[in-house]
What we know:
This protein is an alpha/beta fold. The chain has helices spanning 14-17, 45-69, 121-126, 129-132, 135-143, 178-202, 221-231, 248-263; strands spanning 19-21, 27-29, 74-78, 89-93, 103-108, 147-150, 157-161, 210-214, 240-246, 270-277. The chain has eight helices and ten strands. Strand 1 and strand 2 (27-29) form a beta hairpin. The protein is flat and about 80 Å long. It starts with 13 loop residues before the first helix and ends with a strand.
Amino acid sequence: MKKDEPPLDFPDTLEGFEYAFNEKGQLRHIKTGEPFVFNYREDLHRWNQKRYEALGEIITKYVYELLEKDCNLKKVSIPVDATESEPKSFIFMSEDALTNPQKLMVLIHGSGVVRAGQWARRLIINEDLDSGTQIPFIKRAVAEGYGVIVLNPNENYIEVEKPKIHVQSSSDSSDEPAEKRERKDKVSKETKKRRDFYEKYRNPQREKEMMQLYIRENGSPEEHAIYVWDHFIAQAAAENVFFVAHSYGGLAFVELQLMIKQANSDAGKCFRLAMWKNH
């Protein structure tokens, strides 16, 4: 990290970044009309990367809004029997996803930072929404009479702050003189202070120690696909189910097929991998 690196404090809205999507679905600077610039600050690759990631998180929320407002999908929490306190994820479904008697389309994105409704964050930022999101597939599917379910296989855990563990000094219960104990405690505190200062300098955005809490029965893309199958797709009325998968989503689909075959529980439905999307 460069000593003069600016704070990793970025806006939490597109407007704050001074960007917006135009009528063609392209991300453009509000004032200049130019595409997104990655190297906003020269010779500060790490800072530029963090800025890019912060923008990506905003775009993820933006796509979620489009799924609900433009595609008329509803967000459904999982696990379906989750308690108030446990970690949760979600998928998106059309109103007729479980009741459409003819056909259901299931979309599964690949690995990495993408979330429900996305194919590739890079394409959303550098090309347009039609190239990088699942929205064109969803709109066409709805127009052609499909029910739709959008999986969210990368939303496997939530991050929470690690609880602080207070370790009592072993010297408290020793027979050491009080003066010696106080001196040792002072040295320990100074050592911790220097270590914390170094950590703050080396990694300034790391204000808190975080831990991952995995979502029950959805801790991996494969688990997620199987969970959505068991609790939604297998319960759907559709005679034909079509899967649209990209990259690792195709492997999750294959794992699902193997599970269904082993369980011998296809209930007479016909399953097809509708198309394999690659960039």
